[in-house]
Write a structure and sequence with these properties.
rod-shaped, mainly alpha, single chain
């Protein structure tokens, strides 16, 4: 009996289709995780932009008050 004959008896071997299916599941989960991270980052960026706008407005108001003195 050669190695090829024993190969049919191995229970921990996956078929090509099973390996591709597992790879597909891993990629789908990775894409889902990345989408969640991307959404969180976009939300944080929007919050930072709002904070910057508010601070710039306060800065401009304080500058105007200083010029009025």
């Amino acid at each position: 009996m050669g190695i090829d004959a024993d190969k049919d008896c191995w229970t921990d071997e996956f078929t090509r289709e099973e390996m591709l299916e597992q790879q597909s599941r891993l990629l789908i989960e990775e894409c889902r995780t990345l989408q969640v991270d991307l959404s969180r980052c976009r939300k944080n960026i929007a919050m930072l932009i709002d904070m910057n706008i508010a601070l710039a407005s306060q800065r401009d108001q304080l500058r105007a008050e200083l010029k009025g003195i």
